[in-house]
Each structure stands twice: as C-alpha cells, then as structure tokens.
Amino acid sequence: MIDEQQLRQRLACLPLGEFRFFRSVGSTNDEALLWAASGAPDLSLVYAEEQTAGRGRGGRRWFTPAGTALAFSLVLHPSPGAEPPVSFFSAVGALAVCETLRAHGLDAEIKWPNDVLIRRRKVCGILSEAIWSGSTLESVVLGIGVNIRKEAVPPAEFLNFPATSVDGETVKRADRLALLVEMLAALIYWREHMTASFFLQTWEQRLAFRGEEVEVSLDTGERRVGVLDGLTREGGLRLRAAQGQTFTVHFGEVRLRPLL
Ligand code: BTN
Fold first, then answer.
1. Distance from the alpha carbon of residue 72 to the mean position of ligand 1, in angstroms
2. Mapping DSSP to helix (H, G, I), strand (E, B) and coil, where does residue 229 land?
3. Which of 35, 127, 186, 215 has its CB 3.0 to 4.6 Å from that of 96, i.e. a possible disulfide?
C-alpha cells in the first residue's frame, strides 16, 4: 500500500499545487471537480488507493481495487495567453503515461483519443472534464487510471476493449510509487510543452494502429471505416477512406477498433 506520508515525501521534489490523499474515495475526479470549483490551485493532485465509484468515459464504470492501480486526478488551469484545444490536456496525460511506460521498456502506444495500450491492450484510461465559465475555460480535471497489478484488470464482461496491467507485461513487479512520481514529472513536462510542435509530433508518433484500417463509431451511431493516417493540428483524427478521400473525426466522438 502507498501511504500519505510516503507519497507526500516523494512528491516534495515536484512543482505541484496542493495535495489530497484518500485511502478510499468514490471518484478522484469528483473530488477534484469540487475542489476546482472552490479554488484549487493549478496542478493540485487528488490521489486514492481505492475508488468505489470510479468513472470512465461514456458513463462507464472504472475499477480501482485497493492497492492494485494508480488512480489520480489533477486540476489544471489554462496558461494565460496560450490556448491549445481542450483535447490537448488529455493528450498531456496520455503522453505522460505512455512515455513513462516506454522508459521502462514497455511498448506503450496511444489509442486515440487518450487510452494507453501495451501490445494492443488497454493499460490506462483518461477522463478529462472541463469547467467553463461561459466560453472561458476555467480549469480541466485530468483523471488518470493505470492498471498496475493484474488484479486491477476488471472481469471480461466489464471490458469494452481488451485490457492488461503493467505487471502483466513485465517480469519484475512494478513499483507503483516510483511509477506515479515519474508519471507526474512527465505530466508536468508535457503540460509545459503543450504548444510546442514536437508535442503534436510525439502524440502522432505514438498513435496505435497508424496505417491500419480501423472502424470509428461516431456519437450519432454511424460507423466509418478508414486507414488511420495521423492527427490534425487540433488533435483530431485523420483517416483515409477506401476511395482515397480523407476525413477527420473530432475529439471524443469515436470508439476506435482495428479491423480484424
Ligand atoms: C476510460 O478509459 O474510460 C477513462 C477512465 C478514467 C479513470 C480515472 S481513475 C482516476 C479518475 N477518477 C475517476 O473516477 N476516473 C478517472
């Protein structure tokens, strides 16, 4: 188990905002959203060893059994002047997790928009939720869940995509605390470089299924098939249809699967 004292000490070297630790909580995103609404400083962190009502995208549940995963949410405020598309905040999370896992020799990739896969199985999910004041973006809550132990992977009937864990992909048992600190350091780095051209380039390089035919399900229920080409400047997904014409799918509108 990771305890609060231990984590506080390890986080001292990072330029985070404030920190809230829970042994068990409903959802770290819910806590962070409430905190953001009452003035949490930039880069404030909510961490939980267990979530009892973890939320995934599309209203799905997210499982975080005690001591088996990493579940945390960060409150991010947009930097004055720089206005990257909101979708770039989730990409910061995806890149941070992906690059950390790659530094440990794992072949991690990003399944657009922001799941992290290892060998085509999902190891991390990201739920980012924006708080607006009219048309002004006040803050983004970036919620990240990483399966570390094999027990963190939910039973197959709850999965909408094949899943794995870090331990399931390595010989050595992963050090959860070390991985968390590395992921947070990477997150701070990528957040600082959100507007750099290499941000989009690295995100694109890490895309899973590039050059492969995939099916995207739009919010409308419509399904489209195309070869995954890359990203638009706004972080949308660029695909090429059979007749050669390209089309773009915008953030958050799709489920993406390789065609078998
Ligand atoms: C998904 O892939 O559907 C997104 C999963 C996001 C899970 C994380 S765990 C920490 C944070 N708290 C939540 O309730 N959800 C996110």
1. 8
2. strand
3. 186
